[in-house]
Design a protein that fits this description.
The complex is a heterodimer. Chain A is of the alpha+beta class. Chain A has helices at about 155-160, 165-175, 195-210, 215-225; strands at about 5, 10, 15-20, 25, 30-35, 35-40, 45-50, 50-55, 70-75, 80-85, 90-95, 120-125, 130-135, 145, 150, 180, 185-190. Chain B has helices at about 85-100, 125-140, 165-170, 200-239; strands at about 20, 30-35, 40-50, 65-70, 110-120, 150-155, 160-165, 175-185, 190-195. The chains are: A alpha+beta, B alpha+beta.
């Protein structure tokens, strides 16, 4: 007998039986025990055809190839920089992938990126042992100057960005801040101090309400009330 | 002498009042509180995170560290000497062993998951409360886990089989056996089985049966508390 035991979009905890029988396939965040599909972490159920998977609600960031992340330089080595990634693993930024500028042989690498600098970079490779390589060549990848960094739950980043960047561009427009969201859960903001605070408050709101429906309109109402500006939800076309 | 009625008036298969809360320590990656009557345990989970010194790292899987601590003012009268003791070290070890079978650490090589269990108030059953809280905190931290763990102590007082012994029963001068168990409800496995005292085989089996029933109840409460955090969190902020 094949039977789904839970509703779509229901919150489940580890060890809950999601489906019985071989008619369904275990997706991400689930595993099969005998004939049952059981949840493997705290998340929201998503039933996609015959696959049952979980969308995680919490957890530390785990580096993934292709992610754009914000990192802090913690060490300078002979052939590159070591970066803190807001995860359990540090990343290496190689000399060749670091900058389009010419770096002379034997140059002091701290002239380019010093310890304590924040960089926007892209994860170019992750091995099974979680050795992480990042690169800085690409649109939007740069060293961050000024502003402030806040930490958010990395699983909420897609909600903060919104569909095709709609949410983040709305916050940018309302507050007039420059904002960069790293997929590792670090967010960089720069603007007038009151605007920065409003942007942080909005991001925190999205973080705690993202699993409830009607998020975009609620955030839009909130920002309109706070700023007095009329906003519209725009779909930003990605330039990449 | 026959133990005809429990000192606090509970039924023999009845637990003390239980309570569970999730997400109480905001700065931790995951946290939870679990209470059996007057025994309260707080658990905070950090990680997976960097592990130093480097020689502790295991390239094949992450490691789990548990730290069990009773606060100096936690017991009935005597001050508990702060810092580690032989007892706390042992309980940290059995807690770790009770949690290890469910946490899938292969996903996090060379890293560590730290579990801190603090007990501000105790009246027997502290390791069980600690394990219940730690299991919820691990789930809250978003770790990959096969199941939740529920723990309770069972045992005998004179010739009666009882569930969730309190301090007056544990320290009773007659024949007492105290058996803390930890149980995985979905996978139907025990991950902790200790015993202090003497018990015949039949009584042990009977006690375990009652213990499993109690664990199922605890598991229901744990699930409810975990879900509660994610449902109410948003509603509060929306107002």
């Amino acid at each position: 007998m094949t039977d789904v035991q839970v509703k779509d979009k229901e919150i489940v905890v580890p060890g809950e039986i999601l489906a019985k029988g071989m008619g369904y396939v275990p997706g991400a965040g689930t595993y099969r025990n005998g004939e049952d599909i059981i949840s493997e972490r705290l998340g929201v159920v998503s039933i996609d055809g015959r696959a049952v998977k979980l969308i995680p609600l919490s957890g530390r960031y785990l580096p993934k190839r292709g992610d754009t992340i914000i990192c802090k330089v913690v060490d300078v080595t002979l052939n590159g920089w070591r970066l803190e990634t807001n995860s359990a693993y540090q990343a290496m930024l190689g000399l060749k992938e670091a900058t389009s500028e010419f770096i002379a042989r034997g140059a002091d690498l701290r002239k380019y990126y010093d310890i304590g600098d924040f960089l926007v970079c892209k994860v170019s490779n992750v091995t099974s042992q979680m050795l992480v390589d990042v690169m800085m060549k690409g649109p939007g990848l740069k060293k961050l100057k000024g502003g402030r960094i806040i930490e958010v739950n990395s699983y909420k980043v897609p909600r903060i960005i919104g569909k095709h960047g709609s949410m983040i561009s709305m916050i940018k427009e309302a507050t007039g801040c420059w904002i960069i969201v790293g997929q590792n859960g670090l967010v960089w903001l720069q603007g007038e101090p009151p605007a920065e605070l409003l942007a942080i408050h909005t991001i925190r709101m999205i973080e705690s309400e993202s699993h409830l429906g009607g998020l975009t309109s609620r955030i839009k109402d909130f920002l309109e009330k706070e700023t007095g500006k009329k906003l519209e939800v725009k779909l930003e076309v990605k330039t990449e | 002498m026959v133990y005809a009625r429990r000192l606090d008036g509970r039924k023999f298969d009845e637990m003390r009042q239980i309570e569970a809360k999730v997400g109480i320590i905001k700065r931790a990656d995951g946290s939870a509180m679990f209470r059996f009557g007057n025994t309260i345990a707080y658990a905070a989970v950090y990680g997976p995170r960097n592990l130093y010194p480097k020689f502790l790292q295991d390239p094949s899987k992450g490691i789990l560290r548990c730290h069990y601590n009773m606060m100096p003012f936690s017991s009935a009268g005597e001050r508990v000497r702060p810092g580690g003791s032989r007892r706390s070290k042992e309980i940290s070890m059995v807690t770790k062993n009770a949690l290890l079978p469910i946490v899938n650490l292969e996903e996090y090589p060379n890293s560590v998951v730290d579990v801190f269990i603090e007990l501000p108030q105790t009246e027997a059953g502290s390791r069980c409360a600690g394990i219940c809280a730690a299991s919820m905190a691990l789930a809250d931290a978003g770790l990959i886990m096969k199941d939740l763990v529920a723990a309770v102590s069972v045992g005998r007082v004179d010739d009666r089989v009882v569930v969730d012994l309190d301090y007056s029963e544990e320290s009773y001068s007659g024949i007492v056996a105290d058996i803390p168990i930890a149980y995985l409800p979905t996978l139907d496995k025990l991950t902790l089985l200790q015993m202090d005292g003497i018990v015949p085989k039949e009584t042990l089996m009977e006690a375990l049966k009652l213990g499993l029933k109690a664990c199922m109840k605890i598991n229901e409460l744990q699930k409810k508390a975990l879900k509660q955090k994610y449902i109410t969190e948003g509603v509060e902020d929306a107002q």
